Each structure stands twice: as C-alpha cells, then as structure tokens.
Design the sequence.
C-alpha cells in the first residue's frame, strides 16, 4: 500500500511530529519556508522525499531511509551532504542550487542513475567512476 502526503507550496517553517506516519511512501514539501525537519528517520518506507526550494541548512538522519529511491533537495542552503552511502536504492539525487562544499557516500550508490549537482560550491567529486 502506497501513501503520499503533499504539503508543497505553503508557508511551513518547521516540520515536526511526522514520525507517526510510518507507512508513508512519498512526502512532498517543496516550496515552503522549512529550515528544519525532524522525525524523518522513522519513515523507513519512504521512497520519494521532495524538500526542494526551502531554507534547509542541514539535513540529518537520511541514512535511516533505506528504501529511498528519489531525493530532491535542490534550492536550499545545504553545505554538507553526509552518510549517503546507506541509501542503496537511491536512483535520483537532486541537490542543485545549494551551498554544498562536501559530499560523502556517493561512491556507494550503485543504483544512482541521475545526479543533479549544478550551482554549488563543490570543488571535487571522488570515486564516482563505478557509477558512471
């Protein structure tokens, strides 16, 4: 059973108490004013997470989302992307138009088909040869 929640194009600043939505497979929160989101680690069935066009500076606990296939974080204020290596099912990673200087775990994403990284402050990508 798939379940989706779309709260895009609103004025939410904080997302809290979503940890009870354990059967959620898609969560759309693009174009809000979100600077912080908590409780994601409990959403282990999530396949699509859309957080683009917000004000997020730091994204945490993504490594618990092991079923995630599509992750949209473009147009935020994120500086570091860490612990991506546990997202083994990730096919699409959209992190363009952030402030990213460092990314770790990309080389472990064997299923990654699409990577959008334009308009960042990234100077180096390492060990991507096996994914291309």
Sequence:
């Amino acid at each position: 059973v798939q379940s989706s929640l779309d709260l895009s194009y609103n004025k939410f600043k904080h997302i809290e108490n979503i940890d009870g939505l354990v059967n959620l497979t898609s969560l759309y929160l693009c174009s809000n004013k979100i600077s912080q989101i908590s409780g994601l680690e409990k959403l282990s069935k999530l396949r699509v997470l859309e957080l683009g066009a917000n004000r997020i500076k730091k994204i945490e606990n993504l490594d618990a989302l092991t079923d995630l296939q599509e992750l949209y974080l473009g147009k935020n204020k994120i500086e570091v992307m860490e612990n991506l290596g546990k997202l083994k099912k990730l096919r699409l990673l959209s992190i363009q138009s952030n402030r990213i200087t460092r990314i770790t775990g990309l080389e472990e994403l064997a299923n990654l088909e699409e990577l959008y990284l334009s308009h960042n402050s990234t100077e180096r990508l390492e060990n991507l040869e096996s994914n291309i």
